[in-house]
Amino acid sequence: MTESVDVLITADRLPSYAHPGDAGADLHAAESLVLEPGERATVGTGVSIALPDGYVAFVVPRSGLAFKHGITIVNAPGTVDAGYRGEIKVSLLNTDAREAYSISVGDRIAQVIVMPVSRARFVPVDRLPGSERGEGGFGSTGFSESKSGVSA
Ligand SMILES: O=c1ccn([C@H]2C[C@H](O)[C@@H](COP(=O)(O)OP(=O)(O)OP(=O)(O)O)O2)c(=O)[nH]1
Ligand SMILES: [Mg+2]
Q1: Closest ligand to 92 CA?
Q2: Ranges of Low complexity compositional bias (predicted)?
Q3: Long-range contacts: 127-135, Cβ < 8 Å, 24+?
């Protein structure tokens, strides 16, 4: 069974899990608007929550909107702090160069993922312990098998 946690909410319309076991609950637009090509807009959801301490909610794009229409979220994943009591808003961006995208009240514009989160105790030291990766990053291991084969 999927673990669940109670999240207090005030909402015009509750976020909804489309299927049992889904990680993301869809957030609905509380306003209508048209996103012109390349335009971004902050869209209200009518949802405010009180997360338990030790939890975070991430606001992330819906894949279908991204794949079919190029609609993404500027600050993905948007971070909703446990202490935040305001309305959850979604900063949508229409990345399509040609097609405007219309949003109506009630449309599912994003999804929210509620997760337990650790807070770090940052412990200053003079030197970090070694590791297999060391300081390599930013593509230090190459990009894909086929490409590394071609360029070799
Ligand atoms: O997509 C998002 C991201 C954030 N928030 C809300 C909840 C979050 O707790 C608050 C602040 O977000 P964040 O800390 O990412 O933004 P900031 O620019 O650091 O603002 P602040 O100075 O208020 O922390 O805004 C949203 O409604 N939607
Ligand atoms: Mg902040």
Answers
A1: 1
A2: 141-152
A3: none
Q: What is the dihedral of CA 113, 114, 119, 120, to 10 degrees?
A: -30
Q: What is the pLDDT of residues 61-88, one digit of tens each?
A: 999 999 999 999 999 999 999 999 999 9
The answer on whether 121 is annotated among ligand-binding residues is: no
- The CATH number corresponding to 8-117 among 3.40.50.1380, 2.30.110.10, 3.40.1110.10, 2.70.40.10 equals 2.70.40.10
Token couple for 110? 């994003």
- The ligand 1 atom at the shortest distance from the C-alpha of residue 75 is 1
CB 65 within 8 A of CB 71: yes
Query: How many angstroms separate the most distant Cα atoms in the chain?
Result: 58
Query: Is 81 annotated as contributing to ligand binding?
Result: yes
Q: Flag whether 96 is marked binding.
A: no
Ligand 1: residues within 6 Å at CB?
A: 59, 75, 78-81, 84, 88-91
Burial degree of 51 (CB within 10 A; 0-12, 13-18, 19+): buried
